Amino acid sequence: MSVIKVAILGFGTVGEGFYRTIQSHEEELKAVLGRKVEVAAVLIRNKQKERDINKEVIVTTDFTDILNLPQLDVVVEAIVDKDPTYSFLKKAIQRGCHIITANKEMFAHHGQELLELAKKHNVSVGYEATVAGGIPVIQTLRQLLNVNRVQQVQGILNGTSNFILTEMREKKLSFAEALRAAQENGFAEADPTNDVEGFDAFYKAMILSRLAFGEEPNWHDVERAGITSITSKLIDTAERLGLRFKHIAIIRKSGNQLTASVKPVLVGKEHPLYHVEGVQNAVNIYSDIVGQITLQGPGAGMFPTASAVIEDLVYVCQNRPVTQGLTPTKEINAGSQELIQQEETWLISSLLKNVNNYSINIIEHVEEGMFIVKAVKDEIENLFHQNGELLYYPILGDYDSESKLAKLAL
User: Fold this and answer.
1) What is the reported pTM?
2) 354: Cβ–Cβ under 8 A, 6 or more apart, which residues?
3) Taking every pair of C-alpha atoms in the chain, what is the biggest distance, in angstroms?
4) How far apart are CA 3 and CA 33, in angstroms?
5) Which residues, including other chains, have CB under 8 Å from residue 172's CB and lie 6 or more apart?
6) Average pLDDT estimate for 273-287
7) Which of 26, 177, 362, 402 pairs with 320 at a CA distance of 20 to 30 A?
């Protein structure tokens, strides 16, 4: 029986989890692929660190040793930096290897180039683990894109931020206390900027956009905001209104207009992401035939992520085409080139004493300094420019102000 030879770049949480899964699921892989999978080499940074790796596997700090292997079929990249990982994967493709990556930042920046290069060399690219850990959102979108036209994708794509918001609400913690809990539990890095300021979710959203719509918006046009502005008071007010704060990436296409945002929003019980708690991730996909699909599961961790990489291994070893994500989708609705803003419902928090003096439709005065308003986004932003201490959060879905405010009186 022939053998599939694999090299792993990086032996941290993801790389080690993938290595262990190949060992524990050897027979399942053989049954699916018709060939045995063997790890031929592992690229590491520190040779002095002890690792539980079979002695027959080449362990090296030099990527050239991997490229020079007599047989190399798949390169799995599980390193966090953009460079030199991009150049490693380019060289692997040029050698004729399939590639798999779990590196969201690198793939957000260079994924399109790698996909095009792979197409040229007739190899496949697996990137399921770049977006939502163990949730098979990439595979699901690939299947949907055979016929369905995706119109919108919404997702909770960062488990750290979701954990912090959950802790703040359930345990009545401040942001700083909830962040400290996330760090103590290993959910947040010592420097949590990428997570709490929305960069991590932004990279994932751009990868999803490329796959779902064949293109991505101009990065500078994407509204990206983190969760650091959310206070215990805001969390408490939202809860009494029957709402929850969620950090959600939204990618939407209308006509030929593609828009995206990554920011905190408020959702009610009817929203599919309302019950997604803790470090869980979830993605809601809306397409023209199937309607809405919501996928939920662990967004990180050794074995959830290894699961995504293993499924990609099966995908690339079947040498699937890499055309999805290369061709822009058709227009959803023909019409004007102008993106017409729709009126939305917002919770605003302001120190303004005379907010009624501003040209904005106030539905209710919730409590001191907090209001529910109806407005298009430009009106809210104009109000913000007039009052820099204004905080504003959109409420997704229908909002019944009378029933919500009745709860505040109880």
Assistant:
1) 0.88
2) none
3) 79
4) 10
5) 232, 236
6) 95
7) 26
pLDDT range class, residue 95, cuts 50, 70, 90: very high
In this structure, which topology does domain 344-408 adopt according to CATH? Alpha-Beta Plaits (3.30.70)
Q: Is the pLDDT of residue 357 over 80?
A: no
Domain boundaries, the chain: 3-126, 137-298, 344-408
| Per-residue model confidence (pLDDT) at position 337 | 45
Find out whether 132 and 249 touch, Cβ atoms under 8 Å: no
Burial label for 155, CB within 10 Å (0-12, 13-18, 19+), is buried
Mean of pLDDT values over 297-319: 86
To the nearest 10 degrees (0 to 180), the angle between helices 159-170 and 175-184 is: 120
Give me the architecture of the 3-126 domain, per CATH: 3-Layer(aba) Sandwich (3.40)
Instruction: Measure the CA–CA gap between 281 and 299, rounded to whole angstroms.
Output: 5
pLDDT tens for 9-40 read: 999 888 999 999 999 999 999 999 999 999 99
Extract the runs of DSSP E, i.e. beta strands, from 268-389: 280-287, 291-298, 344-349, 361-367, 370-375
Find the angle CA(216)-CA(221)-CA(222) to the nearest 5 degrees.
70
Angle between helices 232-240 and 159-170 (to 10 degrees): 70
Residues 63, 87 contacting (CB under 8 angstroms): no
CA distances from 16 to 126, 299, 381 (A): 18, 17, 47
Quick: pLDDT tens for 64-85: 999 999 999 999 999 977 889 9
Architecture of the CATH domain 137-298: 2-Layer Sandwich (3.30)
Residue 377 labeled ligand binder: no
Instruction: Specify whether the CB–CB gap between 250 and 227 falls below 8 A.
Output: no
CA distance linking residue 81 with residue 103, whole number of Å? 8
For the segment 94-98, the average pLDDT, to the nearest whole number, is 96
- The reply, when asked if residue 38 is annotated as ligand binding, is no
Please say if the pLDDT value at position 362 is more than 90: no
The token duo for 26 is: 């050897």
**Catalytic (active site) residue 233:** no
Q: What are phi and psi of 290, to 5 degrees?
A: -75, -20
At residue 327, does pLDDT exceed 50? no
Q: Do the two domains 3-126 and 344-408 of this chain adopt the same fold?
A: no
